[in-house]
Amino acid sequence: MADRAQLIQFLQTGGRITQPQAEEIAQEFTAKTIGKNEFLLRAGQVSDDYVFLDQGFLRAFAYDIDGQDITTGFYGPGQVALEVASFFQRTPSLEYLQALNECQGWRISFTQLNELFHSRNDFRDFGRSVLVRGFAALKNRMLATITEPAAVRYEQLLRSQPALFQHTPLKYVASYLGITDTSLSRIRKGGGKR
Question: Which InterPro entries did the record assign (predicted)?
Fold first, then answer.
């Protein structure tokens, strides 16, 4: 897995980094493989992995006060997988990140990432834009949970990440949407309320 093409393309999103700059930055990342069901991060650990995924899907989850496993996010090809609060604040994670299938991508550590942020204005601006997009997506998801019916949230997830449904058990999708497996089954059959 020596081809960094997807990573280089990702680094150029937003137009802040040129192709030669992206190629140079990409050399700071090392190849990372995560086997099916392996953990990239467990609760209680401090995250030190900023991973750009080329292949595979990861699931983020936490346990609620009743001990139920609740899916908090999915990461797939072309996305950065990390637990933001733990990674940037250097605090123990409350979440788990687990591979749903074999994942391949490119990793950089907290220390290496910060060295790049401090030494390269182009990368610092890029990093800021990635965090802003991530924060906006989280805010939109939170608002959708309040303002949109589950059927609409399901359809939006299906449109935005269709490949996710080929690799993810539906119980994780239901958990992510904040509904029961039965409700998701009804929505999928066309009986969900809009």
Answer: cNMP-bd_dom (IPR000595), cNMP-bd_dom_sf (IPR018490), RmlC-like_jellyroll (IPR014710)
155: in domain: no
Q: Which domain holds residue 76?
A: 5-147
* Res. 51 pLDDT band, cuts 50 70 90: very high
pLDDT at 66 over 70: yes
Q: What is the pTM of this model?
A: 0.87
Lowest-pLDDT choice from 45-49, 57-61, 166-170: 166-170
Q: Contact at 8 Å (CB) between 178 and 145?
A: yes
Is 87 domain-assigned? yes
pLDDT for 2 equals 57
Phi-psi bin for 143: left (phi > 0), alpha (psi -120 to 50), beta? alpha
Domain count, the chain: 1
The answer to the question of residue 41 being in a domain is yes
Q: Could you give the CA distance from residue 109 to residue 92 in angstroms, rounded to a whole number?
A: 16
Sheet holding 80-81, edge to edge: 30-34, 103-108, 50-55, 80-81
Please report, for the domain that includes residue 12, its CATH number. 2.60.120.10
